[in-house]
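Predict both folds.
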Amino acid sequence: MRKLAFSGVAASMLSTALQAAPAGSLFGISLIDQKGGQALGVPMQIVLLMTLLTLLPAAIMSITPFLRITVVLHFLRQALGTQSTPSNQVLLGLAVFLTIPIIQPTASEIYTKAWAPMERGEITQQQAFERGSLPLKTFLARFAREKDIRLFMEVSKTPAVRSVTEVDLRVLIPAYILSELKAGFQVGAVLFLPFLVIDIVVASVTLSIGMVQLPPVMLSAPFKVLLFVLVDGWNLLAGSLLKSFY
């Protein structure tokens, strides 16, 4: 009985909303007559904008150098064995501020060629998207491997193109992500090697003298941190990451 009563209340509320809504509009989804045709109503445009904003962090992390930098920094912390030091907030902040100087030329070109003319009303949104995608494609194509691009072109059944910049973004973006993941893991593996040697040496020494009750990780951690500090590891790592994108 409760289910029937609830269904009756819901049906009455829906019918009331349908009667109260103006013609061609329901829950803010309406079509407005404009010179170029019909467009979505303001409430629906806000919903779409908020949806796009929720996807913005994922886009920033995936199609910028932020991806490779965060992977490398994560491997570095694991290699040092310092658990949660530096914290995730510090590593993410460092990755953001290392990403800004790398992506700034591309972002400035997109703003100059696409966003600014669209704000002045000189071009349409479609033209702005086409102009803005060219600098982004150029940047992504520099670091996306040909093997990964060919893979997604085959999967999406995209016809062959004469230039990499002519490749669609739906092919270029996942290819770039795979390429950056591989590059990040390669750098992380190289970072692990010297610290792994320290772990092996300390573990061999502790076992040879019978110190089985004390974990070798506790003994090797100070030596690894000391080695990283003596070689000025943060400067070397940040410089190498920045130079790898130029």
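Second protein follows, with its predicted structure tokens after the sequence.
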Amino acid sequence: MKKFFVAAVALLYCTLTMMAQDSQPDRNRTYRITLGNVQYAHHNEKMSTGDAIGKVLTGVLTGKVEGQATKYEEDVKNAIVKGLSSAYRFRYNDGLKELADIVTEGNLIVNAVITNIQAKSDSRTWRDKDDKLQISTTYTGIVEVMLTFKDARTNEVIANPTISGSGMGSSSFSDADKAIRDAIGRMSRRIAEWLNKYRPLEANLIEGSTAKKDKQKEVYIDLGSSEGAFAGLRMGVYIVKNIAGHEAKSQIGRLKIEAVEGDDISRCKVQSGGKDIKAALDAGENLKVISID
């Protein structure tokens, strides 16, 4: 009887453990993403990633500033690829020849339409105290791309955001070229930001660390090196409640990871909401943390 009881307890433990694991099987899973077709809106033609970038920029500069558009070929290509591969939970798959490798649910294919690249100048003139004519010119670069994200398995369109970037520089130390390159760089970062919002890193706040009076100063979360945690990552803190079968979240503070201390644990500094976080911990609330960078 005793052996049966021990075996039953062991079986129950294993079952509960498996249920706990299955309750969040995809938490912080890594997705693969592939760049499909690239199209320049004014050319009305589709091109594969391999041969597109050299063509999409022909005649692409508009506005008051002119230049050799083809010299931005590598900048645009690298900006799109860097943006797709810089997000926390995505790995860029280079080339359509391996498309079959990513055709599983959740992995993504993205098609891009470049809708705008332009450089504009704005000049201001005045006379100084010696009555000499002075000219100050500011250059503004604008880059816009429309992305269509599709599920690699179902071909379902997930989202269709327009990502833009802009860059400015004074003529005393810059020119139109720098403004355009700055804009391309900003666009790249915004692609990564969009993906980070689409699939943020998630964790649970598991224990309070240091506190001062009624404010929490440091906490521990169950996110570590195995799921991509890194020092400096900023995360929001949310009280989570289940209402009629739906998850309701209410943000009460912000954290920044100070140190990754293992595969599944990190120590965080409380940046805001220390009083509410401590009160929630003391009350035994279910607290979730979600990346916000």
